[in-house]
Amino acid sequence: MSAGYDVAIVGGGHNGLVCAAYLAKAGRKVVVLETAKETGGAAKTEVFSPGFKVSSGAHLLYQLHPKVLADLALEKHGLKLAADDLATVALARDGAHVTLKGPSVEGVSPDDARAYANLHERLLRFAAALRPMLSQVPPRLGEGMGLADKIALAKLGWSIRRLGRVEMREFLRIVLMNVADLAEERFESDLLKGALSFDAVLGTHLGPRSPSTVLTLLYRLAGEVSGGQGRIALPAGGMGSVTAALRQAAEAAGAEVRTGSPVAQILVEQDRAVGVGLDGGEVVTARTVVSNADPKTTFLCLLGARHLDAGFVRRVHKLRSRGDVAKLHLALDGRPEIPGLSEAQIRGRLVIAPSIMEVEEAFNAAKYGEASAAPAMELVIPSLGDPSLAPEGKHVLSAVAIYAPYALKAGWDRTRESFKQRLIDRIALYAPKIEQQIVAAELLTPIDLEKRFGMTGGHWHHGELAVDQLLMNRPVPGAHQYAAPLPGLYLCGAGAHPGGGVMGAAGMNAARQVIAREKR
Amino acid sequence: MKRYDAIVVGAGHNGLTAACYLAKAGLDVVVVERNDFVGGAAVSRELYEGWTYSNCSYVCSLLRPEIVRDLDLPRHGLQVIPYEGGLTFMQNGDYFANYDDHDAHYREIYRHSPRDAEAYEHYAAELMRQCRFIKPLLMRPPPDPTSFRPRDINELLYLGKAFHGLGELEMYDTLRFWTMSIAEFLDEYFESDVVKAHLCGSGIIGTALGPYSPGSAYVLLHHYMGEVDGNIGAWGFARGGMGSITKAMASALQAEGGEIRTGSGVERILVRNGKARGVVLENGDEIHGKTVVSNMDVKRTFLKAVEAKELPGEFLTAVRNFKIRGSSGKLNIALDGLPDFPQVPKDCPALRGDTHFSDSMERMERAYDDWKRGTWSKDPYLDTLIPTRIDPTMAPPGKHYMTVFVQYAPPHLADGEVWDGPNRDAFGETVLNQIAQYSPNFRDLILHAEVRTPWDLENEVGLTEGNIFQGELTFDQLLFNRPVPGYADYRSPIKGLYLCGSSAHPGGGVMGAPGANAAREMLRDLDAPQTVREPVQ
Question: Would residue B72 be called left, alpha or beta, if left means φ above 0 and alpha means ψ between -120 and 50 degrees?
């Protein structure tokens, strides 16, 4: 029997660590219990081939919440960016690439460039209107509505209202529209439209023609990194350095972090969470348990349906959380060459999404449990700007690919090798010599991501980021304010509002709820 | 020259509905119609001797009962006969039927899945809750959330109150329902593929969405919120074909002293000093009026019938960006007798309703994939009915009329292909083949078949791209966004010019609500007696 804690946090992913840091700063006695040998969850830097390191889960930083960054003094704890404003390059087979950076876009007609600048500015404004919601607890409606809920609703209403009449109308029109229409209303360039579509659908089970993909695009733009909205950054040393800084911050604040300590169950006494039991049988008692695990794991595996209301359990079961994203890591014995790219461009985020229709066709396959024949991809070569990741003269390429459905009909065991080759061939269309440079290649399918990071369905948002699973419906009503229907139990992971990405907002919001509700 | 109080452009069911309410208020009303017959897409036509085709819209449910009562349509000859079920044929030789009779329906679902039979009760209750929520919103103008006008604020409060009245969990569920896909919604209740496929059809009919597209659950609701004789969600045949509805409306209009001019296509809407003054007909004649209300869709009205210089640029952009997408075609078939369907007992009452041949949602989604690629579905979703099983007036004795609604058919074919000629034939053959697979004598019975592509619907009825709803029913085009944000109140930037067609709230179907709502706004503006009931607050 371990000493009693105020709070036991199940899982040392970035949100668990953020939550731990806030709670420790508030004077709570906190322990973080992580299954793996290292903290970080899916935000980790790992060696995948001798001498080659890569961010094995998330590989780009879009939206580390500025409040988290400041409150936890992450820079003091060692967080450094290797690059802080990456361009996005939509790769063209003929070398006429299109480059997007902030409001500017190169490689398209002047009309498209103008229209893009307009749209970009407008989307940032709309995303900014939604941003306060990220650090807000989603309100309750109806009879359970309290003052805080009313304030939260009013704030959201006001931030949309503040856009002004014309912009508010446009916001309400496009917010649930599909991104293909949004792009086709404005642009001619297939590459530009393809890249925009890709950004909107990445990480979701949606295609460019699926309604609501403008909202998922806004979600991506709502975040802020290195002081700019809509920017993309690469942490020095890979994503693991973000969580290393978070761990340091948590420990500096007094939290205890125990790795190699898999939680087997959440313990309940007299209808209240009272601690957790570890795999070896050890019991860690705590007045409050906060779970960084995804909602299905938390409620159905660690807690058990018998402690919950049947209606609630049914909702948890129905939660859609099957991932569609695979990761590919290549160790290269030389610098990859992509004809037509400048030095600045190749250090950017390279997107293979030649047109809306190609992304849509890639998605079509996923609907039927098939892997895309021509997947859409995002590539980064972080070693170009961060020599710590590969031996001298050698490089690492990290790619995310859609769509690679979790529940593949043919089974991943039979498909893994051919899909890996398909991705490499796809890259080779743009980097013809890459195949000869490959020293090692690692493919992580959603099944692998599920196993490695303990995320149900291998979904990086812990649950589909769709309109019907947002706000009050995230993860399910009754747990949407971070507190579970069982007293003393909270959620703090990406399955809770506002979802995934290395943002930390869920951890921060959850900590605030624990502080407010659980008196010491 | 005579100056009318109101000129109605187009004698579709909404145009006629609006005209009736206006005439009831004592206004001098004329309806001008391009075709030689009234009805728009709610018509009965003899295209093969002895047969009456409902050759566009083919079944009735959404027509608002308030309108039927106000216009006294039964007295003018309208009779709606409910049909008794529906049926989906399965590839494995079995079938799934739905019956009016609750116990028979339960047993039939049970035959496919005991779990689903239990789940159906919950499903039906949830759907009914959504119907009850949306019904009062149909016959009122949607509020403009950006406006501070007392009326808009009142309407917003009404909406908020209605929403709040659902209860906490139900509010969350409603938010989900309005944004999720019909496939996800059905997956939450059912396990049997055919049960889901059968229920799913209403989520895609008439829209360029697939069952897996977010927002298609709402489309299902749009098809369920109607009623026949107070039976919510029921569908029926208008005796004598869909034209009976518009014929009754035309008769009601004439009884009120309204005038109808067929064969009078409108070339242009006359605008002077930002105000509508009348219309110019295709033959050059001018008709003058204080107000003009267009039953045409929003694109035809503002991009074709009104000169661009009369409209603000942002408004025109918004109209151009309004999505009116053709997604369906149709076959009308004269049959020498009743086709056999050996898979189903001969006297099965479900055969008197809508029959389908898609036994999984995946097949329907794949049909949608074809549409996205710019071709008609190779394995289409069919909504097939034989109205003459119930209504003998539509064909000679012993003979039958079959209507086949086909989803999906894009208005623009890929690779520069055009609809006329071989493509039209191939499209028709695809449909006939699917039916013939289940009915060995079907092909031999065919006396005449009319194949209608989206372009036919555009050319004949004037519906842009052949979209049956005059605009997609996606959230970006519903309520205050329909047809253009800021103009959801049936008005337009041109004073005295109104919209009363399905491009306006609450959208398509033979519903009449846009027509009635538009008339209410016009009567308000004209300070005329109000003949359209004011919505309850």
Answer: left
CB contacts of A174 in chain B (<8 Å) are 476
The span from the first CA to the last CA of chain B, in angstroms, equals 43
pTM of the model: 0.96
Chain A, nearest residue to B174 by Cα: A468
**Which residues on chain B are in Cβ contact (under 8 Å) with A368?**
362, 365-366
SS3 state at B238: strand
Tell me if A396 sits within 8 A of A54, measured CB to CB. yes
Cis omega (within 30 of 0) for bond into B408: yes
The DSSP code sequence of B252-267 is: HHHHTT-EEE-S--EE
- Count of A-B CB contacts under 8 Å: 103
Q: Is B348 exposed, middle or buried (0-12, 13-18, 19+ CB in 10 A)?
A: middle
Q: What are A447-479's pLDDT values in tens digits?
A: 999 999 999 999 999 999 999 999 999 999 999
Question: Cα B529 to the chain's mean position, in Å?
Answer: 30
Q: How far apart are CA B352 and CA B184, in angstroms?
A: 29
Strand spans (E) along B309-466: 328-335, 354-356, 381-385, 400-407, 446-452
Which chain A residues are within 8 Å of B476, Cβ to Cβ? 173-177, 181, 211
Contact A143, A162 (CB under 8 A): no
Contact B40, B243 (CB under 8 A): no
Phi-psi domain of A82 (left: phi exceeds 0; alpha: psi -120 through 50; beta: other): alpha
**Do A212 and B212 make contact, defined as CB atoms within 8 angstroms?**
no
B480 touches chain A (CB under 8 A): yes
pLDDT at A225: 84
B402 vs chain A: nearest CA distance in angstroms? 33
Looking at residue A3, its pLDDT comes to: 62
Distance CA A181, CA B318 (A): 13
Query: What six digits make up the tokens of A151?
Result: 């304030």
Question: How many other CB atoms are there within 10 angstroms of residue B82's CB atom?
Answer: 18
Query: Cα–chain-centroid distance for residue B456?
Result: 17
HEC string for B195-233: HHHHHHHHHCCCCCCCCCCCCHHHHHHHHHCCEECCEEC
Interface of A with B (CB under 8 A): 140-144, 161, 165-166, 168-170, 172-178, 181, 185, 206, 209-212, 318, 320, 357, 360, 364, 367-368, 466-469, 471-473, 477-478
Q: Check residue A520 and give its pLDDT.
A: 74
Contact B244, B77 (CB under 8 A): yes
3-state secondary structure of A518: coil
Whether residues B176 and A468 touch (CB distance < 8 A) is answered with: yes
Chain B's closest residue to A467, CA to CA, is B179
Query: In this structure, are residues A334 and A347 in contact, taking their beta carbons and an 8 Å threshold?
Result: no
Residue B436 to residue B430: CA distance in whole angstroms: 10
Phi-psi region of A499 (alpha: psi -120 to 50; beta: other; left: phi over 0): left
Q: How many CB atoms lie within 10 A of CB B106?
A: 15
Q: How confident is the model at residue A71 (pLDDT cuts 50, 70, 90)?
A: very high
The CA distance from B186 to B194, in Å, is 11
Check B485 against A173: CB less than 8 A apart. Answer: yes
Out of A170, A177, A468, name the one closest to residue B180 (CB). Answer: A468
A2 pLDDT more than 60? no
Q: What is the per-residue pLDDT for B233?
A: 87
- ipTM of the predicted structure? 0.95
The answer, yes or no, to whether residue A519 has pLDDT greater than 90, is no
Residues of chain B with pLDDT under 50: none
Spatial CB neighbours of A302, under 8 Å, sequence gap ≥ 6: A10, A263, A264, A265, A266, A276, A291, A293
